[in-house]
Design brief:
The protein is α/β, with parallel strands linked by helices and 486 residues long. The protein is 42% helix and 13% strand. It is built from 18 helices and 14 strands. The strands form three sheets. A six-stranded parallel β-sheet has the order 3-2-1-4-5-6, with helices on both faces. The chain has a six-stranded parallel β-sheet with strand order 11-10-9-12-13-14, with helices on both faces. Helix 9 packs across helix 11 and helix 11 packs antiparallel against helix 12. The radius of gyration is 24 Å and the shape is globular. The termini are far apart. About 3% of the residues have low confidence. The structure holds nicotinamide-adenine-dinucleotide and uridine-5'-diphosphate-xylopyranose (UDX). The site of uridine-5'-diphosphate-xylopyranose has 22 residues, from helix 9. GO terms for molecular function: NAD binding; UDP-glucose 6-dehydrogenase activity. It catalyses: UDP-alpha-D-glucose + 2 NAD(+) + H2O = UDP-alpha-D-glucuronate + 2 NADH + 3 H(+).
Length: 486
C-alpha cells in the first residue's frame, strides 16, 4: 500500500525547507515534517524570522506551520512514522582525501541512509533529492538492504530539485518540470506513481517526467553543467569584447534572439556575465562533481571539456579584480573601496561561492580597506566567509580591513571606488549624484553586474568600468577600461 500520509524531510536547508512548505501548502491531507540535526536551524524555522530569505516564503510557511507543516530535531521519531522520506542534506565538494576539491562529499547522505536503516520498522519510499553523482541511489539502496528488518521494504527514487535561490517559491509552484527516476520494476513504478501523486496536487501531469534512476541523477548534473556553461560562454565572449570594442550586451542580444539558443541565462539586462561569472552553492560543486565522475569513468576528454567551464569562471573573477586594481593606478593599498552586494545573486541572503568573496579576497590581498553593504546578508555570515582559511589566513587582518555598513551611502562615503558585486534592484535607483559627491576624486565605479546606467554615471563625473564593454567618456576618445594616464 503506497498511500502517502506522512512525509519526513531530512535536511532543513535551502531546498528542504521551501520544498516541504510548498508540499504542505498544496497537499492539506499530507503531514509534512522537516527534520535537521541543527537545533539552531529548526528553532529559526519555528520562529518569526526564518533562517533563509526567499520572496513569498514567509507567508506560505506561516500559513501551514503547526497545521500540516512541522519542523523538528526528533529525526528518529519522524523517520519511523513517515511513509515517504526526502533526503535533502547537503552534498558539498569534498575537502579531504580521495577526490578532494572535486568529488561530492556523500557523508551526510550516508548518515541519513544509515539512520533510516537503523530505525525503520515499516516499508518506505526513500527519495534522493540532494544533488548526487550518478549511481548514488545504488549506494543508498545497498546501505538500506544490508540492514533491513523483516517485513520492511524500501524503494529508492531520484527526484532532483531544480529551484533557484531567490525564486524558490515561484520555481516550486510552477516548475518547468518535475523529474522522478526509479527502478524499472512493478514495485519501482508503484513508488514513482506515489510520488507523482504528491506532485500531482499542483503540477500538471505533462510536466512530471519519469525515467530510470541513473538518467534522473545524471539529468540534474547535466542541467547545471549546461547552465554554467552558458555563463562561461558569454563570459569568454566578454573578454573578447573588452579587447575589441564589441559590447557583450549587444552580442548576447543578437545571439539570444536565435530561438534555438534562446535569451535566458544570457540576458541582455541583468546578471549575465555577472561580476565573475557564476556563484552559488550549486554550479561549481556540481560541475566539479561531473568532472570527477568522468575521470572515474576513464573519460578524460569529457572531464577536460567540463573542467574548462570552471576555469573560465575563475578567470573571469581574477580578470575583474585585476581590472579594479589596474584602474586604481595599480595600487589599492589603504584605499577605501565600497562593495555593493555580497550575496551570490539578488533576492537571497546566501553567500556560498559568491563572486563578492573572491573580489574582496583579491582586494584584501592588496591591502584595500573594504566598506561592504548588502541588503540581506547577515554580518556574521559575511565575516565567516571572509575569514575562511582559503580566503584569509589572518582573521585579525580581516577585522582591520573590513567594515560592514547598514547604509549604502555611508559605505560609499570617502571611498576611491565603488564596486557593484550583486544585482540587487535597489542599487539601480540610488542617488548617485549624492554618492559621487561624497567620494574621493577621481571617483571610480566598477559595475560587475552591468545593471547601472553608465552614460548617466559618466555624466555625473564617475569613471565607469564594466564587464564586456569599453566605456568612453562623452567627447573623450579614450578607452576607459584602461587606467587613465596620470
Ligand atoms: P543546506 O546546507 O542549506 O541544508 C542541508 C541541511 O541538512 C543542513 O541544515 C544540515 O544540518 C542538514 N543535515 C545534514 N546531515 C543531516 C542528517 N544526517 N540528519 C539531519 N539533517 C542533516 O543545503 P541545500 O542548499 O538545501 O542543499 C541540499 C541539497 O540540494 C544539495 O545536495 C544541493 O546540491 C541540492 N540543491 C540545492 C539547491 C539550492 O539552490 N540550494 C538547488 C537544487 C539542489
Ligand atoms: C542554480 C540552478 O539555476 C538551479 O536550477 C539549480 O537547482 C541550483 O543551481 P542558483 O545557484 O540558486 O540555481 O541560482 P542561478 O539563478 O542559477 O544563478 C547562479 C549564478 O549564476 C549566480 O551567481 C548568478 O548571478 C549567475 N548568473 C546567472 C550569471 O552570471 N548569468 C546569468 O545569465 C544567470
Amino acid at each position: 500500500d503506497m498511500t502517502i500520509g506522512k512525509i519526513c524531510c531530512i535536511g532543513a536547508g535551502y531546498v528542504g525547507g521551501p520544498t516541504c512548505a510548498i508540499i504542505a501548502h498544496n497537499c492539506p491531507s499530507i503531514q509534512v515534517t522537516v527534520v535537521d540535526l541543527s537545533e539552531e536551524r529548526i528553532a529559526q524555522w519555528n520562529s518569526d524570522r526564518l533562517p533563509i530569505f526567499e520572496p513569498g516564503l514567509d507567508d506560505i510557511v506561516k500559513g501551514c506551520r503547526g497545521k500540516n507543516l512541522f519542523f523538528s530535531t526528533d529525526v528518529e521519531k519522524e523517520i519511523i512514522e513517515a511513509d515517504l522520506i526526502f533526503i535533502c542534506v547537503n552534498t558539498p565538494t569534498k575537502n579531504y582525501g580521495v577526490g578532494k576539491g572535486r568529488a561530492a562529499d556523500l557523508k551526510y547522505i550516508e548518515s541519513a541512509a544509515r539512520m533510516i536503516a537503523t530505525v525503520s520498522t515499516k516499508s518506505k519510499i526513500v527519495v534522493e533529492k540532494s544533488t548526487v553523482p550518478v549511481k548514488a541511489a545504488e549506494s543508498i539502496a545497498n546501505i538500506l538492504k544490508a540492514n533491513v528488518k523483516p517485513g520492511v521494504k524500501y524503494q529508492i527514487l531520484s527526484n532532483p530539485e531544480f529551484l533557484a535561490e531567490g525564486t524558490a517559491v515561484k520555481d516550486l509552484l510552477q516548475p518547468d518540470r518535475v523529474l522522478i527516476g526509479g527502478d524499472q520494476t512493478p514495485e519501482g513504478h508503484e513508488a514513482i506513481q506515489a510520488l507523482c501523486w504528491v506532485y500531482g496536487h499542483w503540477v500538471s501531469k505533462d510536466r512530471i517526467i519519469t525515467m530510470n534512476t541513473w538518467s534522473s541523477e545524471l539529468s540534474k548534473l547535466a542541467a547545471n553543467a549546461f547552465l554554467a556553461q552558458r555563463i562561461s560562454s558569454i563570459n569568454a565572449m566578454s573578454a573578447i569584447c573588452e579587447s575589441t570594442g564589441a559590447d557583450v550586451t549587444e552580442v548576447a542580444h543578437a545571439v539570444g534572439m536565435d530561438t534555438r539558443i534562446g535569451n535566458k541565462f544570457l540576458k541582455a539586462s541583468v546578471g549575465y556575465g555577472g561580476i565573475s561569472g557564476f556563484g552559488g552553492s550549486c554550479f561549481q560543486k556540481d560541475v566539479l562533481n561531473l568532472v570527477y565522475l568522468c575521470e572515474c569513468l576513464n573519460l578524460p576528454e569529457v572531464a577536460e571539456y567540463w573542467q574548462q567551464v570552471i576555469n573560465i569562471n575563475d578567470y573571469q573573477r581574477r580578470r575583474f579584480a585585476n581590472k579594479i586594481i589596474e584602474s586604481l593606478f595599480n595600487t589599492v593599498t589603504n584605499k577605501n573601496i565600497a562593495i555593493f552586494g555580497f550575496a551570490f545573486k539578488k533576492d537571497t541572503g546566501d553567500t556560498r561561492e559568491s563572486a563578492a568573496i573572491y573580489i574582496c579576497k583579491y582586494l584584501m590581498d592588496e591591502g584595500a580597506k573594504l566598506h561592504i553593504y548588502d541588503p540581506k546578508v547577515e554580518e556574521k555570515q559575511l565575516i565567516t566567509e571572509l575569514t575562511h582559511p582559503a580566503i584569509s589566513d589572518d582573521p585579525s587582518r580581516v577585522k582591520e580591513l573590513v567594515t560592514i555598513h547598514k547604509d549604502p551611502y555611508e559605505a560609499a562615503n570617502n571611498t576611491h571606488a565603488l564596486v557593484v558585486c550583486t544585482e540587487w534592484d535597489e542599487f539601480i535607483n540610488y542617488d548617485y549624484e549624492k554618492i559621487y559627491g561624497s567620494m574621493l576624486k577621481p571617483a571610480f565605479l566598477f559595475d560587475g553586474r552591468i545593471i547601472l546606467d553608465h552614460q548617466k554615471l559618466m555624466g555625473l563625473g564617475f569613471n565607469v568600468i564594466t564587464i564586456g564593454k569599453r566605456l568612453q567618456r562623452p567627447n573623450v576618445h579614450r578607452p576607459y577600461a584602461q587606467a587613465p594616464a596620470q
